[in-house]
Structure formats: structure tokens, C-alpha cells
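Continuing the series of single-chain predictions for the mutant panel. This is the parent chain; the variants come on the following pages.
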Amino acid sequence: MKKIFYLFVLLLFAACGGVGEGKSPGLVAVELFSAITSGDNEFVKDNIYISDTIQREVFNSAIDIAVKSEQYKRNTKDFTPSYEVAKEVVDGDNAEVILTGIGPLGNRVRITVKLLRIDGRWKVDGDHGVWH
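Parent structure:
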């Protein structure tokens, strides 16, 4: 009976993609850039990989400060993110995604995002990965 239970749990995780797994690089990029402009800094921190501990701490502090700023509040007031995946290329544990959409200032944007698969989850490569 135990074996059947464990097999069921294993199949359930495989079908659902596991905890935090299963999202395509494109979906992660869309969700991350939507989170940046909607102020969900915890999502941003959790979905960007920065290898250097000090740089990661500085980035995390900077995003917390930015979200609290008046300029951020002005620039994102009444803004609804609407980014779309224009292109997604996956090469093993690396991916490159091109997003298009309208930025918070009303301008058309094209964002190229590099991602890495870290512990089975796609994360934006904070060491190398975002170009406008």
C-alpha cells in the first residue's frame, strides 16, 4: 500500500510539474517583468538568480527601496502589465526569451531576457541577462 501511495505522489508531482517547476522560460520572464511593474518584489527576488551573495543582497535592497519610492508609484500608477513572448529559445539549462509589450511609461518595449534552470526552475540570469 505504501508503494502505491508513493507512486501516486510521484505521478502527481510529474503531472503538475513539481513544486515551482514546469513553467516555461517565457512564462517566468513574463511573470517576472509583470511583477517588477506591479511591485511584487518578493516574486522578483525569488525568480532572479544572482550568483554573488553581496550583489544579490544589494539588488534585493535596491528593489525594496525602488518599490517604496514616489517615482515608482507615479510611473506604475494605473499600469497593467501586458508583456508577451515574441520568441523563446531553450538550449539545455539556458534559455533566451524576447518579450514585447507596453512599458509603464506607455512606450513599446522589446526586452531580451536570459534565463538559467536552477534546481529544476527557470530563473532570470541576474548576472548577465536583461537587455532592452
